[in-house]
Amino acid sequence: MTTSILAPASRRPSRHASRTLLAVAAAVLLAGCAQVPTPSANDPWESYNRGMTQFNDAVDRAFLKPIATGYETITPRPVRTCVHNIFGNLFDVWSGVNSLLQGRGRDFVDTFGRVLFNSTAGLGGCIDVASMHGARQIPNDFGMTLGVWGFNHGPYLVLPFFGPSTVRDGVGTAVTLTAPVTPTAAVFAIDNIPVRNSILGLYTVDTRANLLEADRLVDQIALDKYSFIRDAYLQRRKAMLDSRQQGEHASTTDALGQSQTQPDSLPVYDDPDSPDSH
User: Fold this and answer.
1) How far apart are CA 163 and CA 186, in angstroms?
2) DSSP single-letter state for residue 62
3) Can you tell me whether residue 163 is helix, strand or coil?
4) Dihedral sign (CA 118, 184, 69, 233)
5) Which of 45, 60, 175, 248 sits in a 20 to 30 Å window from 162, CA-based?
6) What angle do CA 10, 190, 208 make, to 5 degrees?
7) pLDDT digits (tens, 9 = 90+) for 195-237
8) DSSP code per residue over 1-40
9) How many CB atoms lie within 10 A of CB 230?
């Protein structure tokens, strides 16, 4: 059924899709115009990246940020939290798949335990009851899987609309968008176009709204916003990869790979057979 709907669309591109492709092409051309005399060693494409960042910022200021700010203003916090948790629960499935691909069986079990718990007791993921009981979210993606498999991250790369990335993470993003077992594939498989577009739109707004506070903080403390975001992104991804390569259980670390101290009332995830526990 999905194929029959998508096939005609691929033969007759809509005017909206054509305008989007033209806008991206123009952005790429404009991004290459500005030249940085001495780019950083980990950012040889800095000229392009800074231009693409300006394009993304322009799109954000014109469309995404105002909509996200309005959404934050008029939508009660419990509703926003529910929406965010539902999307997080959906993407936990993909995180679990990547944990399995990385050979991290314990993280795979922990993640799917979260999904099962939140999908039932958490009313479809609306309430993150798993985190309330000490089972924290384990962030994972295919870019991280490629890193565990030994692929170098490559140069820093700012993607149109998606923002900070690397060559490796960019490939991971492409796989996430196109692979048949990802959450995005499940959404795109919805035949009802208004429903599908509404879900995609709500996810975009929810994602941007949850970055508003970080955006305000960066504006306050960063002298060069581009460099600050680039360095923070690269450091975070390196810390996440290091924690996985060192064999640490991601359920006991935060997104930066740093150990978390757990209250006595929460489950203990430490391996009793490890040397550090004796």
Assistant:
1) 23
2) I
3) strand
4) positive
5) 248
6) 95
7) 999 999 999 999 999 999 999 999 898 889 999 999 999 999 9
8) -HHHHHHHHHHS--HHHHHHHHHHHHHHHHHTTS--SS--
9) 21
